[in-house]
Backbone:
């Protein structure tokens, strides 16, 4: 099998900086982690907060700290540095090759949408952002690495898209349709982003980040690949 | 304009772990850095060394340290931790949005190949790997961000490909041809990798990593994208 991750990310309309931070890093024993944080407020301040959270998490993951412990540490760290005045969401998805599992770690009121064996479900157990309480714990879900498993994590800009005009995006329904159409993770991320931008008439009211991870049948070769696109003004 | 980065990476034949480590991170004021290290020897030990170097560099870049200073720090750090007994190559390419330049930082005997305004050249000033001497300095080249600028960095597995059978790969000539054919950075990275694997008869004698960065005309939209593929056994 193989893992593919597709990411699409855009700033709030007319905002020079996104409050969302996303990094992908290699784990110590192979495998990958994707870390996404959405800092409170928008622009420069939000960016500083989400960067602080993501940096803390990736430096701990790189040292072999488990995802749940890294999330708790990031929460305590933000709580201590900002006196509990500032919050950030935090999502981690990891391909852990030691346990051959997919680990989803969530400190985010927004749910995570998954599709397993062709059936879509929403992981929406109550979950608290990091930074405002002592002892904040993440919600953790773990799945065996099996083909045709898809996970979608996103910042709240995606679920808010279309809310102003009373037609919010139905992420689970979209994912189900996109998987039926055999779209790749990158195509799914792009399709969700396109849907959001259409609803927002190309002027998103918040930063939007969408990450789609898919466990797919093995294709062609043993080459790892990564592609990045950064539009400049 | 827009930046695209394409990466292709494979392990030495029959080796479960690559000694090359590559990470892409966001810079504090926007922009991106790609950091590639190739640790001495191969397998687990090499991986540990290259990871140590890349982690040190990205944590410093994230704090706003300039690329040259981060490279010098990584060298001193490795020198101190391993008593000057272990070396690693180090390449950093950064899109620096403060200065609107492309910065190439090199501690690697392997050259960097660039193409600017349709003409390919090789940056091959003498350069020392990090970790074995005090006061090792990187070679730094800086270019204005202009369309149709391409940079190729790679680990020595690429230039060694085909050497055993007396037909080493000519990276500059390949790049020139691939740009004439209007290939994207990912397609160029894939084409160089395919050429190397053909010369090595699909059994690469060393870890191979190829990174191609291109500054291209702006296409379609303001969406940042990232795609990752990780083949599993």
Residues:
């Amino acid at each position: 099998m193989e893992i593919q991750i597709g990411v699409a990310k855009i700033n709030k309309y007319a905002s020079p900086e996104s409050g969302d931070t996303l990094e992908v890093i290699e784990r110590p024993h192979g495998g990958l982690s994707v870390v996404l944080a959405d800092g409170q407020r928008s622009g420069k301040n939000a960016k500083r907060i989400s960067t602080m959270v993501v940096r803390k998490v990736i430096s701990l993951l790189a040292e072999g700290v488990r995802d749940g412990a890294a999330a708790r540490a990031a929460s305590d760290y933000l709580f201590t540095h900002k006196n509990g005045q500032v919050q950030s969401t935090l999502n981690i998805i990891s391909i852990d090759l030691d346990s051959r599992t997919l680990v989803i770690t969530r400190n985010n009121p927004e749910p995570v949408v998954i599709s397993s064996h062709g059936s879509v479900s929403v992981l929406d157990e109550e979950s608290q952002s990091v930074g405002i309480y002592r002892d904040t714990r993440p919600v953790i879900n773990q799945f065996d690495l099996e083909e045709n498993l898809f996970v979608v994590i996103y910042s709240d800009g995606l679920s808010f898209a279309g809310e102003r005009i009373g037609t919010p995006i139905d992420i689970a329904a979209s994912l189900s349709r996109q998987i039926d159409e055999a779209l790749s993770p990158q195509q799914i991320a792009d399709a969700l982003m396109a849907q959001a931008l259409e609803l927002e008439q190309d002027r998103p009211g918040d930063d939007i980040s969408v990450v789609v991870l898919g466990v797919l049948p093995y294709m062609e070769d043993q080459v790892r690949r990564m592609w990045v696109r950064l539009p400049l003004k």
Remarks:
- Chain B touches chain A through 47 residues (CB under 8 Å).
- Residues 43-62 of chain B form the longest helix (20 residues).
- The two ends of chain B are 38 Å apart (CA to CA).
